[in-house]
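Holo model, flavin-adenine dinucleotide. Inputs:
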Amino acid sequence: MAGFAKVVIVGGGPAGLQAALTLGRMHVDTVVFDDERPRNSTSARMHNVLGWDGTEPARLRAAARNELQRYPWVRVIDGTVRGARRETDIELDTADGPWHAENLLIAAGVEDALLPIPGVAELWGDLVLPCPYCHGHEHAEGPIAVISSGAHAAHVEGLLRGLTDEVPHFEPEEVASVARAGDRALITRHDGRTAEVAAVFIPPNPRPRSSVATDLGVRVEADGIVVDALGRTNQPGIWAAGDVARRLDPHVPAAVVTAMAAGLTAAADIAAAGAPPPRGSAREG
Ligand SMILES: Cc1cc2nc3c(=O)[nH]c(=O)nc-3n(C[C@H](O)[C@H](O)[C@H](O)COP(=O)(O)OP(=O)(O)OC[C@H]3O[C@@H](n4cnc5c(N)ncnc54)[C@H](O)[C@@H]3O)c2cc1C
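Output:
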């Protein structure tokens, strides 16, 4: 089966679903493809999202999908966009066959290349965490460890010191393993010394999850798809939003609310780009 939509959104996380809501409210024919692998799926609770603080991340996504049903111009399809190419329009390779779009929003999120320390992947999102704004407060009884180096370590340690007095720092190469010890984390160094802490923060090291951007010649750098303040990429008709897009300032947190804001911003620009010209602008006679 082949399909067509004025706008296709790759990724139904906070960025893509918010963009779909904005486009739906502007009666723009929109399809969202999503394969249900959100970045925060290993966390039982989501924080620092006004109105949803402390709830399961999946509840926000389910509520958003439910709300989108009010807008018949929006369809959400469960499935992966496997690749893309530009013909006269944008062609996307999906399990449903080729889908064609006039405009594309890439909101496919990222995956994290975690430190290769035994135990880190198993505890990721639980006791090993990326973001003090999202999960620092819950562990403020301390100590909260930082396994990182350089500017990232200094930045995160500074934030965590606002929450707790004890913020032990470990260079990644000195740590042999991280393991659960009850509701705390046990860090074991290569020299055998151990430290029990309330939680561990590490650098997330995000990587784009989908090849769609590079397939279409979209400019991608190490820290994400290059976009302007409206989410426009270097390719006409292609926008990006959320974690997959490079933040204009690296200190802006990659978070649910910032992803939603970026989705809304890009969608508003897409809607404006497709809007009919103002009355009187067409040549008369
Ligand atoms: C462990 C952890 C915990 C976090 N906790 C919090 C928190 O408490 N509060 C907070 O504000 N932020 C938190 N974050 C950050 C937050 O998860 C992200 O900033 C947010 O999810 C970004 O939204 P997004 O829509 O850009 O991407 P995502 O939420 O990752 O959504 C992207 C979606 O695109 C889909 N997708 C990808 N490629 C394709 C494809 N080719 N075809 C179809 N679908 C595709 C994925 O399956 C996914 O559903 C956390 C991050 C991590 C790593």
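Residues 15 and 263 are 4 Å apart (CA to CA). Helices lie at 14-25, 57-68, 120-123, 132-135, 150-161, 212-215, 256-274.
Archived with the compound record.
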